[in-house]
Write a structure and sequence with these properties.
The chain has 309 residues and is mainly beta. It is 4% helix and 46% strand. The protein has a single domain, classed as 6 Propeller (Neuraminidase).
Length: 309
Amino acid sequence: MTRNLVLLFAGVAALMAQPPAGSERAAPRGSIDGRLTWFDRQGKKLGTTGEQGVYRTLTISPDGKRIAVERTDPQTMNRDIWLLDVATGAATRFTSDPAWEAFPTWSPDGSRIVFTSNRSGVYDLYQKPSSGAGNEVLLYQSKEGKGPNSWSPDGKFLIYYSLGQPTHLRLLAADGPADRQPVPLVDPQFSSVTGRFSPDGRWIAYSGNESGKAEISVRPFDPATGTAGAPVVVSSGGGRTPLWRGDGKELFYITPDGTVTAVDVKAGATFQPGPPKSLFKAPSGLLFWDVSPASSGDDVRFLMPVPGN
């Protein structure tokens, strides 16, 4: 394993690491003090939503009308999840526990949000209605820390990754006892992170080092059996945090030098990726982003926190 590969996955594993004693207020990696900003596929700024703040993990709702985002409270410095209305920019606090909440993940129908919290000492998964009503309920607990990445379109499965070193992708039944057992998606001898179900639920994109360096790969997924097939490497020269276009015909990721990159997708009986195409440079320090649920390339909008006022 090369030094750069070790550093990449060590950095990913540290994204949700518990701050050491005496540094609880230090900003975690990926935090950006600025504005949530919309970009088109040429990198042109289309506008902002919400007020200035310290933002980190974020996801857009399936209908594109709301944003769930991890934000640091400027008064208490508590890291909670907030919901933003895309049309108005109005923000509503979604969690308020003194612990650290992050990685909000929408259910396919937008009615629930799963997130991770270390309120019990370990980063476990909790869920709550996206309306904000009701209590936060423990969804899954284990001895290792974990961060949710994606919820399958049929609502049956969740993908999360372990927060240890190295990181490992796991497949978890969305319903069941809080201590139910997950299934590895990638051979644990390799590091793998940020797994994303395709819009039709038949493919899983992720970043992993099975090829010898950190690349974006895609595996076929059988929703009936909950099993994944052999990977197809999509990126060239490295990649992180893959995202699907709303119709599943394009895959986006960020290269090691911070370039937003697109790959055309033909997914029938087999997965056939086109050549990577550079779109634009992402803002400095960006680790977390999302893409609007557009059904065509021209309508795609990317949401990213941008440093500054």
